[in-house]
Amino acid sequence: MNTLPNRTSVASQKQGREHEHIQKLGFNFEELILPVSSLSPSSPHEDHDACMTELEAEKLNEKLLKFNLKAGVWATDRRKGRMADSYDKLVQDISAELQRLQGFEQILKEDTQMEDEVIKIQSQIESHKILHEDILSHQHPILSLVYQAEQLTELYQEELTPEQVTSLCGEAAFLKKALEKVLKTSDRRLKHLKTAEDELRKLETEMDKFNAWKDVSRDELTNLEQCLQRFEDLKPIQENQKELLADILSHQADIRYMSMSVQKYVEEAKLYKLEVDSYRADRQRPARSSLISMDCVAADSVKDKLKDISEDYVDLKHKCTAFGDLLSELSTKQTGFNDVALKMLSWLADTE
């Protein structure tokens, strides 16, 4: 009888440890121990008779072991259930982002060629900025989904089927590639638009200044021609004509400067059209050398503007040069006339 309390103490310690382990798995130890302890003899007179016998302790251990195994199975099932929910949610989110990217792709495919006026290009830039910022706002969520997919397939591969792993990896890779394509295309087009807008702005500013100067110079030439018709003194007219011609020749550099802006704008406009066409056809953008033979309505329109200005400039220069030639011819004739007149006056004087 003296050894029974010791056995009971050992059994109680073991039950306590098992009780703690089961509680970690989400079970109530009292629900397991009550049915077994009801088999033990109970007497209000002898406390030691209420303790478990060694046989009862062994039976309890066996039952606890069975419930431990069941608890492990149930925990695994719950984990698999949560894994299935996570997988399904991730697949749904990836599918939703793919649809969003397809919407961006459609907008990029429906894009038109670059405009040929500053105010129109500015409107085009603002619209494209909104699209680009919208794409950027979804970059982080999409990359987060790709990272989650990588972690899920890497760390929990054993709890997924091979088909699920292959499918998820493929969808995540496709999502990342689609994002890179849309983002790169949008960024490239926006840069083309901004560069073209800058060159076209410089071109239009120079054209306005050049046209204003050209109008003043043409009016001055007209005034000199009228002075000649009134038989005014030829010498000041000649001096003014020479100054005007020198000024006209100095503005040849303006034509060259505007030609450089036109060339840069045309290149950006063609690159933009090339970007749109290749994206719409889902093919790689050709090399820059293909721009040489490429048609572009916007580029042709801007080149025509410079062509008109150049032709007006050449016409003004030719008229001023021709007027100078006329003045030189008149000056020569006037000199000859003056010589003849002096000789006649001298002859008349001698005759008298």
UniProtKB/TrEMBL annotation:
The gene is ORF67481. This is Uncharacterized protein. Residues 186-213 form a coiled coil. It comes from the Eukaryota. SUPFAM superfamilies: Spectrin repeat. It comes from Arion vulgaris. Keywords: Coiled coil. Gene3D superfamilies: 1.20.58.60.
